[in-house]
Sequence to fold (574 residues):
Amino acid sequence: MTSRRRMTNSIIFVLLFIGAVFMIGPLLWMLSTSFKDKQDVFALPPVWIPSPFHFDKYKEIWEAGPLLSGIRNSLIIAVTVTVVGTFTSSLAAFSFAKLRFPGKNKIFLLLLSSLMIPYPAVMIPQFFMFSKLGWIDSLLPLIVPGLFGNIVMIFFLRQYLSSVPNAIIEAAKIDGSSYFRLYSSITFPLIKPAVAAQLILWFMGIWNDYLAPIIYLNSPEKQTLQLVIANFNATYAIQTDYPLIMAASIIALLPMLIIFLVFQKQIIESVAISGVKG
Amino acid sequence: MNAKSNLYRKEKIYGFLFILPPLLGLLIFTLYPMIYSIYGSFTDWDGLGQMNWIGLSNFTDLLSDELFHKALFNTLFMMLGIPVGITLALLLALGLNRGVPGTTAFRVIYYVPVISSLAAVSIMWNWAYNGDYGLVNQFLDLLGISGPNWMANKYTVKPALIIMAVWKGLGYTMLLYLAALQSVSRSYYEAAELDGANGFQSFWNITWPMVRPVTFFIIVTNIIGGSQIFTEMNIMTPTGGPEYASASVVFYIWQKAFGNFQMGYASAMAVFLGVFIFVVTLIQFRMNEKQSFDVD
Fold:
Protein backbone atom coordinates (compact mmCIF):
# COMPACT_ATOMS: atom_id res chain seq x y z
CA MET A 1 0.00 0.00 0.00
CA THR A 2 2.70 2.48 0.97
CA SER A 3 4.83 1.58 -2.02
CA ARG A 4 1.84 2.07 -4.29
CA ARG A 5 1.20 5.40 -2.65
CA ARG A 6 4.81 6.37 -3.10
CA MET A 7 4.60 5.35 -6.75
CA THR A 8 1.49 7.52 -7.29
CA ASN A 9 3.14 10.41 -5.53
CA SER A 10 6.16 10.16 -7.79
CA ILE A 11 3.94 10.28 -10.86
CA ILE A 12 2.08 13.26 -9.43
CA PHE A 13 5.36 14.98 -8.66
CA VAL A 14 6.52 14.55 -12.25
CA LEU A 15 3.21 15.89 -13.58
CA LEU A 16 3.32 18.87 -11.22
CA PHE A 17 6.90 19.49 -12.29
CA ILE A 18 5.97 19.49 -16.00
CA GLY A 19 3.10 21.85 -15.21
CA ALA A 20 5.44 24.12 -13.28
CA VAL A 21 7.76 24.28 -16.31
CA PHE A 22 4.84 25.50 -18.42
CA MET A 23 3.88 28.07 -15.79
CA ILE A 24 7.31 29.54 -15.27
CA GLY A 25 8.74 28.85 -18.74
CA PRO A 26 7.22 31.87 -20.51
CA LEU A 27 8.46 34.17 -17.74
CA LEU A 28 11.95 32.69 -17.87
CA TRP A 29 11.91 33.11 -21.62
CA MET A 30 10.99 36.75 -21.11
CA LEU A 31 13.92 37.13 -18.74
CA SER A 32 16.27 35.34 -21.11
CA THR A 33 15.12 37.47 -24.06
CA SER A 34 15.91 40.63 -22.12
CA PHE A 35 19.58 39.56 -21.99
CA LYS A 36 19.86 38.70 -25.69
CA ASP A 37 21.16 40.73 -28.57
CA LYS A 38 18.86 41.36 -31.50
CA GLN A 39 20.11 38.39 -33.54
CA ASP A 40 19.72 35.83 -30.77
CA VAL A 41 16.10 36.80 -30.37
CA PHE A 42 15.27 35.34 -33.77
CA ALA A 43 17.53 32.30 -33.46
CA LEU A 44 16.01 28.95 -34.40
CA PRO A 45 15.99 26.77 -32.38
CA PRO A 46 15.53 29.18 -29.49
CA VAL A 47 18.47 30.12 -27.33
CA TRP A 48 17.56 29.84 -23.65
CA ILE A 49 20.86 30.90 -22.19
CA PRO A 50 22.23 33.82 -24.18
CA SER A 51 25.98 33.88 -24.65
CA PRO A 52 27.24 36.32 -23.82
CA PHE A 53 24.68 37.98 -21.54
CA HIS A 54 23.87 41.50 -22.68
CA PHE A 55 23.01 43.79 -19.83
CA ASP A 56 22.93 46.95 -21.92
CA LYS A 57 19.15 46.82 -22.47
CA TYR A 58 18.71 47.33 -18.74
CA LYS A 59 20.68 50.56 -19.10
CA GLU A 60 18.98 51.57 -22.31
CA ILE A 61 15.41 51.31 -21.04
CA TRP A 62 15.85 54.27 -18.70
CA GLU A 63 16.63 56.48 -21.71
CA ALA A 64 14.23 54.84 -24.15
CA GLY A 65 11.06 55.91 -22.38
CA PRO A 66 9.79 57.54 -19.20
CA LEU A 67 10.33 54.39 -17.17
CA LEU A 68 11.57 56.15 -14.06
CA SER A 69 8.67 58.59 -13.91
CA GLY A 70 6.35 55.64 -14.57
CA ILE A 71 7.69 53.88 -11.49
CA ARG A 72 7.45 57.08 -9.49
CA ASN A 73 3.83 57.69 -10.53
CA SER A 74 2.80 54.11 -9.80
CA LEU A 75 4.46 54.34 -6.40
CA ILE A 76 2.80 57.66 -5.55
CA ILE A 77 -0.63 56.27 -6.39
CA ALA A 78 -0.21 52.88 -4.76
CA VAL A 79 1.45 54.13 -1.56
CA THR A 80 -0.96 57.03 -0.97
CA VAL A 81 -4.05 54.95 -1.65
CA THR A 82 -3.04 51.91 0.37
CA VAL A 83 -1.77 53.85 3.38
CA VAL A 84 -4.72 56.23 3.69
CA GLY A 85 -7.22 53.67 2.38
CA THR A 86 -6.07 51.03 4.84
CA PHE A 87 -6.61 53.48 7.66
CA THR A 88 -10.16 54.37 6.56
CA SER A 89 -10.97 50.73 5.77
CA SER A 90 -9.75 49.30 9.05
CA LEU A 91 -11.45 52.04 11.02
CA ALA A 92 -14.73 51.27 9.26
CA ALA A 93 -14.24 47.52 9.75
CA PHE A 94 -13.72 48.13 13.48
CA SER A 95 -16.89 50.16 13.63
CA PHE A 96 -18.92 47.58 11.73
CA ALA A 97 -17.63 44.73 13.86
CA LYS A 98 -17.44 46.17 17.35
CA LEU A 99 -19.57 49.30 17.75
CA ARG A 100 -23.32 49.58 18.09
CA PHE A 101 -25.26 52.11 16.10
CA PRO A 102 -28.58 52.04 14.25
CA GLY A 103 -28.69 50.95 10.62
CA LYS A 104 -25.24 49.41 10.85
CA ASN A 105 -26.04 46.14 9.14
CA LYS A 106 -28.10 47.77 6.42
CA ILE A 107 -25.25 50.12 5.58
CA PHE A 108 -22.82 47.23 5.56
CA LEU A 109 -25.01 45.29 3.16
CA LEU A 110 -25.32 48.38 0.98
CA LEU A 111 -21.53 48.67 0.79
CA LEU A 112 -21.22 44.97 0.10
CA SER A 113 -23.80 44.98 -2.65
CA SER A 114 -21.98 47.83 -4.38
CA LEU A 115 -19.31 45.24 -5.20
CA MET A 116 -21.73 44.08 -7.85
CA ILE A 117 -21.22 47.31 -9.78
CA PRO A 118 -18.24 46.84 -12.08
CA TYR A 119 -15.82 49.65 -12.78
CA PRO A 120 -16.58 49.77 -16.54
CA ALA A 121 -20.22 50.53 -15.69
CA VAL A 122 -19.33 53.73 -13.82
CA MET A 123 -16.13 54.80 -15.54
CA ILE A 124 -17.74 57.17 -18.07
CA PRO A 125 -19.54 59.45 -15.55
CA GLN A 126 -16.50 59.23 -13.27
CA PHE A 127 -14.39 60.48 -16.14
CA PHE A 128 -16.65 63.50 -16.58
CA MET A 129 -16.73 64.16 -12.87
CA PHE A 130 -12.96 64.37 -12.76
CA SER A 131 -12.79 66.25 -16.03
CA LYS A 132 -15.06 68.97 -14.55
CA LEU A 133 -12.61 69.25 -11.67
CA GLY A 134 -9.75 69.60 -14.15
CA TRP A 135 -8.10 66.46 -12.88
CA ILE A 136 -7.61 64.71 -16.25
CA ASP A 137 -3.99 63.87 -16.97
CA SER A 138 -3.18 64.00 -13.29
CA LEU A 139 -2.83 61.24 -10.73
CA LEU A 140 -5.75 62.51 -8.66
CA PRO A 141 -8.55 60.45 -10.28
CA LEU A 142 -6.52 57.35 -9.52
CA ILE A 143 -5.77 58.38 -5.94
CA VAL A 144 -8.82 60.13 -4.51
CA PRO A 145 -11.46 57.37 -4.81
CA GLY A 146 -9.15 54.91 -3.06
CA LEU A 147 -8.68 57.16 -0.04
CA PHE A 148 -12.26 56.47 1.01
CA GLY A 149 -11.48 52.83 1.62
CA ASN A 150 -11.78 49.44 -0.01
CA ILE A 151 -14.91 47.41 0.51
CA VAL A 152 -13.23 44.05 0.03
CA MET A 153 -10.75 44.99 2.75
CA ILE A 154 -13.52 46.18 5.07
CA PHE A 155 -15.39 42.94 4.53
CA PHE A 156 -12.32 40.83 5.17
CA LEU A 157 -11.24 42.73 8.29
CA ARG A 158 -14.78 42.71 9.67
CA GLN A 159 -14.87 38.92 9.35
CA TYR A 160 -11.46 38.71 10.96
CA LEU A 161 -12.53 40.95 13.83
CA SER A 162 -15.42 38.67 14.69
CA SER A 163 -12.85 36.32 16.21
CA VAL A 164 -11.60 39.07 18.54
CA PRO A 165 -13.53 38.71 21.80
CA ASN A 166 -15.88 41.58 22.62
CA ALA A 167 -14.88 41.42 26.28
CA ILE A 168 -11.55 43.14 25.62
CA ILE A 169 -13.29 46.02 23.88
CA GLU A 170 -16.04 46.26 26.51
CA ALA A 171 -13.50 46.32 29.33
CA ALA A 172 -11.60 49.16 27.70
CA LYS A 173 -14.85 51.01 27.10
CA ILE A 174 -15.70 50.84 30.79
CA ASP A 175 -12.23 52.13 31.56
CA GLY A 176 -13.19 55.23 29.66
CA SER A 177 -10.94 54.71 26.67
CA SER A 178 -11.91 56.86 23.68
CA TYR A 179 -13.34 55.12 20.62
CA PHE A 180 -10.40 56.03 18.47
CA ARG A 181 -8.07 54.63 21.09
CA LEU A 182 -10.06 51.40 21.14
CA TYR A 183 -9.31 51.14 17.46
CA SER A 184 -5.72 52.32 17.45
CA SER A 185 -4.28 50.67 20.52
CA ILE A 186 -6.44 47.57 20.95
CA THR A 187 -8.07 46.48 17.72
CA PHE A 188 -5.51 47.50 15.13
CA PRO A 189 -2.58 45.67 16.73
CA LEU A 190 -4.71 42.52 16.90
CA ILE A 191 -5.64 42.56 13.23
CA LYS A 192 -2.23 43.63 11.92
CA PRO A 193 -1.45 40.37 10.05
CA ALA A 194 -4.78 40.50 8.21
CA VAL A 195 -4.27 44.19 7.45
CA ALA A 196 -0.79 43.52 6.08
CA ALA A 197 -1.96 40.75 3.76
CA GLN A 198 -4.88 42.81 2.46
CA LEU A 199 -2.69 45.86 2.01
CA ILE A 200 -0.23 43.93 -0.13
CA LEU A 201 -3.00 42.50 -2.28
CA TRP A 202 -4.48 45.97 -2.75
CA PHE A 203 -1.07 47.44 -3.53
CA MET A 204 -0.55 44.79 -6.21
CA GLY A 205 -3.96 45.50 -7.67
CA ILE A 206 -3.18 49.21 -8.01
CA TRP A 207 0.33 48.60 -9.28
CA ASN A 208 -0.95 46.26 -12.00
CA ASP A 209 -4.05 48.33 -12.91
CA TYR A 210 -4.35 49.29 -16.54
CA LEU A 211 -7.90 50.35 -17.46
CA ALA A 212 -8.25 53.36 -15.14
CA PRO A 213 -4.77 54.77 -15.90
CA ILE A 214 -5.28 54.45 -19.66
CA ILE A 215 -8.47 56.50 -19.39
CA TYR A 216 -7.02 59.35 -17.35
CA LEU A 217 -3.36 59.69 -18.25
CA ASN A 218 -2.19 61.05 -21.59
CA SER A 219 1.17 62.75 -21.30
CA PRO A 220 4.08 60.30 -21.10
CA GLU A 221 5.56 61.77 -17.93
CA LYS A 222 2.24 61.39 -16.11
CA GLN A 223 1.72 57.74 -17.01
CA THR A 224 1.96 54.81 -14.65
CA LEU A 225 4.48 52.04 -15.16
CA GLN A 226 1.98 49.70 -16.83
CA LEU A 227 1.14 52.30 -19.47
CA VAL A 228 4.80 53.09 -20.00
CA ILE A 229 5.68 49.47 -20.76
CA ALA A 230 2.61 49.10 -22.98
CA ASN A 231 3.93 52.07 -24.95
CA PHE A 232 7.38 50.49 -25.07
CA ASN A 233 5.69 47.51 -26.66
CA ALA A 234 3.83 49.63 -29.20
CA THR A 235 6.90 51.68 -30.11
CA TYR A 236 9.72 49.15 -30.15
CA ALA A 237 7.87 46.14 -31.58
CA ILE A 238 8.03 47.86 -34.96
CA GLN A 239 11.81 48.01 -34.60
CA THR A 240 11.69 44.40 -33.34
CA ASP A 241 13.70 45.45 -30.30
CA TYR A 242 12.29 42.65 -28.17
CA PRO A 243 15.15 42.57 -25.65
CA LEU A 244 14.34 46.18 -24.79
CA ILE A 245 10.60 45.50 -24.45
CA MET A 246 11.22 42.43 -22.31
CA ALA A 247 13.71 44.27 -20.09
CA ALA A 248 11.13 46.99 -19.43
CA SER A 249 8.45 44.38 -18.74
CA ILE A 250 10.73 42.57 -16.30
CA ILE A 251 11.20 45.86 -14.46
CA ALA A 252 7.40 46.20 -14.29
CA LEU A 253 6.82 42.85 -12.66
CA LEU A 254 9.95 42.50 -10.57
CA PRO A 255 8.83 44.61 -7.57
CA MET A 256 5.59 42.64 -7.16
CA LEU A 257 7.48 39.38 -7.58
CA ILE A 258 9.85 40.32 -4.77
CA ILE A 259 7.02 41.44 -2.50
CA PHE A 260 5.21 38.19 -3.24
CA LEU A 261 8.21 36.00 -2.52
CA VAL A 262 8.81 37.78 0.78
CA PHE A 263 5.19 37.72 1.93
CA GLN A 264 3.97 34.65 0.08
CA LYS A 265 2.77 32.90 3.22
CA GLN A 266 0.53 35.76 4.34
CA ILE A 267 -0.71 36.47 0.81
CA ILE A 268 -1.57 32.87 0.07
CA GLU A 269 -3.37 32.52 3.39
CA SER A 270 -5.29 35.72 2.84
CA VAL A 271 -6.39 34.69 -0.64
CA ALA A 272 -7.35 31.23 0.55
CA ILE A 273 -9.43 32.58 3.43
CA SER A 274 -11.24 35.18 1.38
CA GLY A 275 -12.07 32.61 -1.26
CA VAL A 276 -13.32 29.93 1.05
CA LYS A 277 -15.33 32.35 3.15
CA GLY A 278 -16.40 34.51 0.24
CA MET B 1 -28.24 54.52 33.89
CA ASN B 2 -27.76 58.00 32.64
CA ALA B 3 -24.06 57.41 32.18
CA LYS B 4 -24.79 54.29 30.20
CA SER B 5 -27.18 55.94 27.76
CA ASN B 6 -24.71 58.75 27.38
CA LEU B 7 -22.08 56.17 26.49
CA TYR B 8 -24.35 54.64 23.91
CA ARG B 9 -25.08 58.02 22.35
CA LYS B 10 -21.36 58.62 22.01
CA GLU B 11 -20.90 55.18 20.51
CA LYS B 12 -23.58 55.92 17.92
CA ILE B 13 -21.82 59.09 16.85
CA TYR B 14 -18.36 57.53 16.64
CA GLY B 15 -19.64 54.36 15.05
CA PHE B 16 -21.20 56.37 12.28
CA LEU B 17 -18.21 58.70 11.97
CA PHE B 18 -15.84 55.79 11.44
CA ILE B 19 -17.84 54.37 8.55
CA LEU B 20 -18.39 57.74 6.93
CA PRO B 21 -15.42 57.65 4.50
CA PRO B 22 -16.38 54.40 2.71
CA LEU B 23 -20.02 55.45 2.76
CA LEU B 24 -19.21 58.79 1.14
CA GLY B 25 -16.90 57.04 -1.31
CA LEU B 26 -19.75 54.74 -2.28
CA LEU B 27 -22.15 57.63 -2.84
CA ILE B 28 -19.72 59.82 -4.79
CA PHE B 29 -17.75 57.31 -6.82
CA THR B 30 -20.21 54.48 -7.36
CA LEU B 31 -23.89 55.28 -6.79
CA TYR B 32 -23.93 58.75 -8.33
CA PRO B 33 -21.95 57.66 -11.44
CA MET B 34 -24.16 54.59 -11.75
CA ILE B 35 -27.33 56.68 -11.81
CA TYR B 36 -25.65 59.04 -14.25
CA SER B 37 -24.69 56.08 -16.45
CA ILE B 38 -28.25 54.88 -16.53
CA TYR B 39 -29.53 58.36 -17.36
CA GLY B 40 -26.80 58.84 -19.99
CA SER B 41 -27.71 55.59 -21.69
CA PHE B 42 -31.07 57.12 -22.67
CA THR B 43 -29.47 60.21 -24.23
CA ASP B 44 -27.34 61.16 -27.22
CA TRP B 45 -24.57 62.29 -24.85
CA ASP B 46 -21.36 63.09 -26.73
CA GLY B 47 -19.40 64.51 -23.85
CA LEU B 48 -19.49 68.07 -25.13
CA GLY B 49 -22.94 69.28 -26.12
CA GLN B 50 -26.30 68.90 -24.49
CA MET B 51 -27.67 65.53 -23.48
CA ASN B 52 -30.92 64.96 -25.35
CA TRP B 53 -33.33 62.29 -24.25
CA ILE B 54 -33.65 59.74 -27.02
CA GLY B 55 -35.44 56.99 -25.13
CA LEU B 56 -34.43 53.45 -25.90
CA SER B 57 -32.64 54.31 -29.15
CA ASN B 58 -29.20 53.37 -27.86
CA PHE B 59 -30.47 50.01 -26.73
CA THR B 60 -32.31 49.28 -29.97
CA ASP B 61 -29.19 50.33 -31.87
CA LEU B 62 -27.23 47.75 -29.89
CA LEU B 63 -29.57 45.07 -31.23
CA SER B 64 -28.43 45.76 -34.77
CA ASP B 65 -24.81 46.74 -34.07
CA GLU B 66 -22.68 44.05 -35.63
CA LEU B 67 -19.53 45.11 -33.80
CA PHE B 68 -21.34 44.92 -30.48
CA HIS B 69 -22.56 41.43 -31.33
CA LYS B 70 -19.02 40.43 -32.16
CA ALA B 71 -17.65 41.94 -28.94
CA LEU B 72 -20.34 40.20 -26.91
CA PHE B 73 -19.75 36.89 -28.66
CA ASN B 74 -16.00 37.19 -28.17
CA THR B 75 -16.41 37.98 -24.48
CA LEU B 76 -18.69 35.00 -23.92
CA PHE B 77 -16.56 32.72 -26.10
CA MET B 78 -13.48 33.48 -24.06
CA MET B 79 -15.29 32.25 -20.96
CA LEU B 80 -14.78 28.74 -22.36
CA GLY B 81 -11.49 28.99 -20.50
CA ILE B 82 -13.36 28.87 -17.18
CA PRO B 83 -14.21 25.12 -17.17
CA VAL B 84 -10.73 24.35 -18.49
CA GLY B 85 -9.12 26.38 -15.71
CA ILE B 86 -11.35 24.85 -13.04
CA THR B 87 -10.59 21.29 -14.12
CA LEU B 88 -6.84 21.86 -14.26
CA ALA B 89 -6.80 23.75 -10.97
CA LEU B 90 -8.75 21.05 -9.15
CA LEU B 91 -6.42 18.35 -10.47
CA LEU B 92 -3.42 20.40 -9.36
CA ALA B 93 -4.90 21.02 -5.93
CA LEU B 94 -5.67 17.30 -5.53
CA GLY B 95 -2.07 16.54 -6.42
CA LEU B 96 -0.67 19.09 -4.03
CA ASN B 97 -2.99 18.02 -1.24
CA ARG B 98 -1.31 14.60 -1.06
CA GLY B 99 1.79 16.15 0.45
CA VAL B 100 4.18 15.44 -2.41
CA PRO B 101 7.66 16.88 -1.90
CA GLY B 102 8.07 20.52 -2.95
CA THR B 103 4.46 21.49 -2.25
CA THR B 104 5.37 25.02 -1.15
CA ALA B 105 7.60 25.57 -4.16
CA PHE B 106 4.89 24.37 -6.54
CA ARG B 107 2.32 26.61 -4.85
CA VAL B 108 4.59 29.61 -5.33
CA ILE B 109 5.51 28.78 -8.94
CA TYR B 110 1.91 28.26 -10.01
CA TYR B 111 0.93 31.50 -8.30
CA VAL B 112 3.62 33.68 -9.90
CA PRO B 113 1.58 34.42 -13.07
CA VAL B 114 -1.32 35.59 -10.85
CA ILE B 115 0.70 38.36 -9.24
CA SER B 116 2.49 39.32 -12.46
CA SER B 117 1.35 42.51 -14.13
CA LEU B 118 -1.25 41.75 -16.78
CA ALA B 119 0.28 44.38 -19.07
CA ALA B 120 3.71 42.75 -18.84
CA VAL B 121 2.44 39.23 -19.41
CA SER B 122 0.27 40.42 -22.30
CA ILE B 123 3.38 41.85 -23.92
CA MET B 124 5.25 38.62 -23.25
CA TRP B 125 2.50 36.37 -24.63
CA ASN B 126 2.09 38.58 -27.66
CA TRP B 127 5.73 37.89 -28.45
CA ALA B 128 5.33 34.21 -27.56
CA TYR B 129 2.49 33.97 -30.11
CA ASN B 130 4.62 35.48 -32.89
CA GLY B 131 4.14 33.27 -35.95
CA ASP B 132 7.80 32.97 -36.91
CA TYR B 133 9.89 33.35 -33.78
CA GLY B 134 7.41 32.93 -30.96
CA LEU B 135 8.00 30.46 -28.17
CA VAL B 136 4.65 28.75 -28.73
CA ASN B 137 5.31 27.83 -32.33
CA GLN B 138 8.88 26.83 -31.59
CA PHE B 139 7.52 24.44 -29.00
CA LEU B 140 4.93 23.12 -31.47
CA ASP B 141 7.73 22.62 -33.99
CA LEU B 142 9.32 20.14 -31.60
CA LEU B 143 6.09 18.14 -31.81
CA GLY B 144 6.11 18.42 -35.58
CA ILE B 145 3.24 20.89 -35.75
CA SER B 146 3.61 24.12 -37.66
CA GLY B 147 1.69 26.71 -35.71
CA PRO B 148 -0.26 29.66 -37.10
CA ASN B 149 0.41 33.34 -36.61
CA TRP B 150 -1.81 33.28 -33.54
CA MET B 151 -2.74 36.90 -33.06
CA ALA B 152 -3.23 37.66 -36.76
CA ASN B 153 -5.68 34.86 -37.50
CA LYS B 154 -9.33 35.29 -36.61
CA TYR B 155 -9.70 31.61 -35.76
CA THR B 156 -6.73 31.39 -33.43
CA VAL B 157 -6.76 34.75 -31.69
CA LYS B 158 -9.48 33.80 -29.20
CA PRO B 159 -8.03 30.38 -28.31
CA ALA B 160 -4.69 32.14 -27.86
CA LEU B 161 -6.23 34.58 -25.40
CA ILE B 162 -8.01 31.72 -23.61
CA ILE B 163 -4.76 29.81 -23.15
CA MET B 164 -3.13 32.90 -21.74
CA ALA B 165 -6.07 33.56 -19.39
CA VAL B 166 -5.98 29.98 -18.09
CA TRP B 167 -2.23 30.28 -17.52
CA LYS B 168 -2.67 33.58 -15.71
CA GLY B 169 -5.51 32.49 -13.42
CA LEU B 170 -4.65 28.86 -12.72
CA GLY B 171 -2.64 29.53 -9.55
CA TYR B 172 -5.43 31.53 -7.96
CA THR B 173 -8.07 28.88 -8.58
CA MET B 174 -5.69 26.14 -7.46
CA LEU B 175 -5.08 27.98 -4.21
CA LEU B 176 -8.79 28.29 -3.45
CA TYR B 177 -9.29 24.59 -4.12
CA LEU B 178 -6.30 23.68 -1.99
CA ALA B 179 -7.71 25.65 0.93
CA ALA B 180 -11.07 23.97 0.47
CA LEU B 181 -9.55 20.50 0.26
CA GLN B 182 -7.59 21.06 3.44
CA SER B 183 -10.77 21.82 5.32
CA VAL B 184 -12.33 18.47 4.36
CA SER B 185 -12.07 16.16 7.36
CA ARG B 186 -9.92 13.07 6.85
CA SER B 187 -12.44 10.92 8.67
CA TYR B 188 -14.78 10.98 5.66
CA TYR B 189 -12.13 9.36 3.51
CA GLU B 190 -11.26 6.85 6.18
CA ALA B 191 -14.89 5.86 6.48
CA ALA B 192 -15.17 5.59 2.69
CA GLU B 193 -12.07 3.43 2.58
CA LEU B 194 -13.52 1.09 5.18
CA ASP B 195 -16.62 0.81 3.02
CA GLY B 196 -14.38 -0.23 0.16
CA ALA B 197 -14.71 2.89 -1.95
CA ASN B 198 -12.07 3.39 -4.62
CA GLY B 199 -10.26 6.65 -5.31
CA PHE B 200 -12.71 7.86 -7.89
CA GLN B 201 -15.71 7.00 -5.74
CA SER B 202 -14.39 8.95 -2.77
CA PHE B 203 -13.61 11.87 -5.04
CA TRP B 204 -17.08 11.85 -6.57
CA ASN B 205 -19.00 11.31 -3.32
CA ILE B 206 -16.89 13.28 -0.84
CA THR B 207 -14.42 15.71 -2.43
CA TRP B 208 -16.55 17.08 -5.24
CA PRO B 209 -19.63 17.83 -3.05
CA MET B 210 -17.39 19.30 -0.34
CA VAL B 211 -15.69 21.74 -2.71
CA ARG B 212 -18.96 22.64 -4.41
CA PRO B 213 -19.28 26.07 -2.72
CA VAL B 214 -15.76 26.96 -3.83
CA THR B 215 -16.44 25.74 -7.35
CA PHE B 216 -19.48 27.94 -7.42
CA PHE B 217 -17.57 30.93 -6.07
CA ILE B 218 -14.88 30.42 -8.71
CA ILE B 219 -17.39 30.13 -11.55
CA VAL B 220 -19.16 33.33 -10.50
CA THR B 221 -16.03 35.42 -9.91
CA ASN B 222 -14.57 34.14 -13.19
CA ILE B 223 -17.70 35.12 -15.11
CA ILE B 224 -17.60 38.57 -13.50
CA GLY B 225 -13.91 38.97 -14.24
CA GLY B 226 -14.25 37.50 -17.73
CA SER B 227 -17.04 39.86 -18.66
CA GLN B 228 -14.70 42.79 -17.93
CA ILE B 229 -11.70 41.52 -19.89
CA PHE B 230 -9.87 44.46 -21.49
CA THR B 231 -6.13 44.83 -20.91
CA GLU B 232 -5.14 41.77 -22.95
CA MET B 233 -6.85 42.95 -26.12
CA ASN B 234 -5.84 46.54 -25.65
CA ILE B 235 -2.18 45.54 -25.64
CA MET B 236 -2.14 42.44 -27.86
CA THR B 237 -4.64 43.50 -30.51
CA PRO B 238 -4.95 47.31 -30.29
CA THR B 239 -7.40 47.44 -33.19
CA GLY B 240 -9.64 44.68 -31.93
CA GLY B 241 -7.87 41.88 -33.78
CA PRO B 242 -8.45 40.37 -37.22
CA GLU B 243 -12.04 41.14 -38.23
CA TYR B 244 -12.66 42.40 -34.69
CA ALA B 245 -12.30 38.81 -33.53
CA SER B 246 -10.68 39.63 -30.19
CA ALA B 247 -12.53 42.79 -29.14
CA SER B 248 -14.36 42.44 -25.85
CA VAL B 249 -17.38 44.35 -24.57
CA VAL B 250 -15.26 46.61 -22.36
CA PHE B 251 -12.87 47.14 -25.26
CA TYR B 252 -15.80 48.28 -27.41
CA ILE B 253 -17.18 50.50 -24.61
CA TRP B 254 -13.75 52.07 -24.19
CA GLN B 255 -13.40 52.62 -27.93
CA LYS B 256 -16.86 54.18 -28.29
CA ALA B 257 -16.55 56.36 -25.19
CA PHE B 258 -13.00 57.63 -25.32
CA GLY B 259 -12.25 57.16 -29.02
CA ASN B 260 -15.51 58.21 -30.71
CA PHE B 261 -17.02 60.21 -27.83
CA GLN B 262 -20.31 58.35 -28.17
CA MET B 263 -20.83 58.55 -24.44
CA GLY B 264 -24.55 57.81 -24.48
CA TYR B 265 -24.12 54.75 -26.63
CA ALA B 266 -21.16 53.55 -24.57
CA SER B 267 -23.20 54.10 -21.40
CA ALA B 268 -25.93 51.87 -22.78
CA MET B 269 -23.36 49.11 -23.18
CA ALA B 270 -22.01 49.82 -19.71
CA VAL B 271 -25.52 49.50 -18.28
CA PHE B 272 -25.96 46.25 -20.18
CA LEU B 273 -22.71 44.96 -18.68
CA GLY B 274 -23.70 46.16 -15.22
CA VAL B 275 -27.04 44.37 -15.39
CA PHE B 276 -25.35 41.19 -16.58
CA ILE B 277 -22.92 41.23 -13.66
CA PHE B 278 -25.66 42.18 -11.23
CA VAL B 279 -27.69 39.15 -12.24
CA VAL B 280 -24.71 36.79 -12.02
CA THR B 281 -23.80 38.09 -8.56
CA LEU B 282 -27.38 37.98 -7.38
CA ILE B 283 -27.52 34.30 -8.24
CA GLN B 284 -24.40 33.78 -6.17
CA PHE B 285 -25.81 35.66 -3.19
CA ARG B 286 -29.00 33.63 -3.42
CA MET B 287 -27.28 30.29 -3.60
CA ASN B 288 -24.80 31.16 -0.90
CA GLU B 289 -27.35 32.71 1.41
CA LYS B 290 -27.25 30.08 4.08
CA GLN B 291 -23.51 29.76 4.47
CA SER B 292 -22.09 33.26 4.28
CA PHE B 293 -22.83 36.96 4.14
CA ASP B 294 -25.04 36.49 7.16
CA VAL B 295 -25.00 39.75 9.03
CA ASP B 296 -25.73 38.89 12.62
Q: What stands out?
A: The two ends of chain A are 38 Å apart (CA to CA). Chain A touches chain B through 102 residues (CB under 8 Å). The mean pLDDT of chain A is 91.
